Amino acid sequence: MSAEVILALVPIVLLILLGMGLRHLRFLAEGFWSQAERLSYYVLVPCLFFHSLATARLDALPARALVTTLILSILAVAALLVALRPMLRVDGPTFTSIFQGGIRFNNYVGVTLAAGLFGSQGIALAALCSAAIVPTVNILCVLVFARHGSARLSGRGIARQLVTNPLVLGSFAGIGFQFLGLGLPAGIEPALRALGAASLPLGLLCVGAALEFGSVRGWMAPVATSSAIKFLALPVMTMLVASLMGLTGPALVTALLFQALPTASSAYIMARQLGGDAPLMAGITALQTLFALVALPIAAAGIGALAA
Q1: How far apart are CA 226 and CA 210, in angstroms?
Q2: Phi first, then psi: what are they for 106, rounded to 5°?
Q3: What is the pTM assigned to this prediction?
Q4: Where is the chain membrane-spanning (predicted)?
Q5: Are 134 and 45 in contact (CB under 8 A)?
Q6: How many Cα atoms within 13 Å fall on the side-chain side of residue 191?
Q7: Of residues 48, 50, 42, 44, the one with CA closest to residue 171
Q8: Are 182 and 54 in contact (CB under 8 A)?
C-alpha cells in the first residue's frame, strides 16, 4: 500500500512543484492564477463532482456507511474545536483560520490520490466523500465565520453563501441525477468528463502557486493546533466512527485519506472574503501541504494494514 501511495503522490508532488516554479519564475502573468482558481472552483471541479456522482455505480459502494462516517466524524471534531475556543486564547478571525485548517480538505489531492489507488472505483469513492464532506464543511465554516469573522454575516448572507457554493451545487446535482436514474446525454457526457479531468492538473498547479511559506512566521501555535486536529484528531475520530459503522476495505482507506488531507487553497479565498485571518490561513495551507507530502505515505501504509 505504501508503494502505491507513493506512486500516486508522485504526479501530485510534481504538479505542485511545477506550480510553485511557474509562479516563482513569473512564467505566466500574475493575474492568471486567480483566474485559473476561479475557473477550477466555479466550473471544472463542479463538473468533476457532478459527472462522477451522476455516472458512478454507487449500488456497489457502501454509500450510507461512508457518508455517515464522514459527516459524524466532522461534526464531532468541529464541536471539539468550538469547545476548545476559549482555551486557545486567540481572536475571532484567527479562530476561523484554525477551524478551516482543522476540517477543510484539498479536493484536488484527494481525488487524484483516490484515483491513483483504486482507479474508477477510487473516483466514485472520492465523489461520495466529496458529496458528504463539501456541504458539511462549507456549512460549518460559513457558520463559524458568521460568529467569529470580522465581517459578520446577516442571516441572508449566510443563506446566500450556503446555497450558491458551486461545489455543493455540483455534488447535490450529481446526487439528484443518480437518485432519479437520469442518464447524461451522449453529447454532453464526454464534455463533462473532459472538464472534470482538467480540474485535477490545473487545480494542483494552482495549489503550488498559492503557497506562501513566508507568511507562517509568528503563527506556529495556531498552525500546530490546526494541523494536530487535521492530521491526528480527525482521522482518529473517523476510524472510531467507521468501526461502529462497519466500514472496511477501499471505502475505509479513502475515507481516512480524505480526512487526513491538507486544507485547500480555497480556504484563503474564503478567509479573505468573509473576514478571517487571511495571512494565517495562507501559512496553514502551506505548512499542511508540506506535512502531507511526508505524512500521507506513512499514514496510508498504516491505514492499509488496518483496512486489510
Answers
A1: 19
A2: -95, 105
A3: 0.80
A4: 39-58, 65-84, 123-146, 167-188, 194-211, 232-260, 280-307
A5: no
A6: 6
A7: 50
A8: yes
Judge whether 113 and 9 are in contact, CB under 8 Å.
yes
In angstroms, rounded to a whole number, what is the distance separating the alpha carbons of residues 45 and 166? 9
pLDDT, mean of each 10-residue run, the chain (308 residues): 64 85 92 88 86 76 90 96 91 91 85 79 84 85 82 72 79 84 85 89 82 69 91 93 91 90 80 79 82 73 60
Q: At what angle do helices 249-259 and 234-245 cross, to 10 degrees?
A: 160
Measured in degrees and rounded to the nearest 5, phi and psi for residue 147 equal -90, -40
Cell numbers that stand for 235 in this block: 482521522
Q: What share of the chain is helix, strand, coil (3-state, %, to 5)?
A: 85, 0, 15
Decide if 95 contacts 148 (C-beta within 8 A). Answer: yes
> CB of 142 within 8 A of CB of 162?
yes
Q: Under 8 Å CB-to-CB from 170, ≥6 apart: which residues?
A: 45, 46, 47, 48, 49, 50
Identity at 210, one-letter amino acid code: A
Write out the three cell numbers for 27: 512564467
Q: Which residue, among 106, 99, 233, has the nearest Cα to 241 in the 3D structure? A: 233
Cβ count near 243 (within 10 Å): 13
The full DSSP string for 208-252 is HHH--GGGGTT-HHHHHHHHHIIIIIHHHHHHHHHHHHT--HHHH
The secondary element (H helix, E strand) that includes residue 44 is none
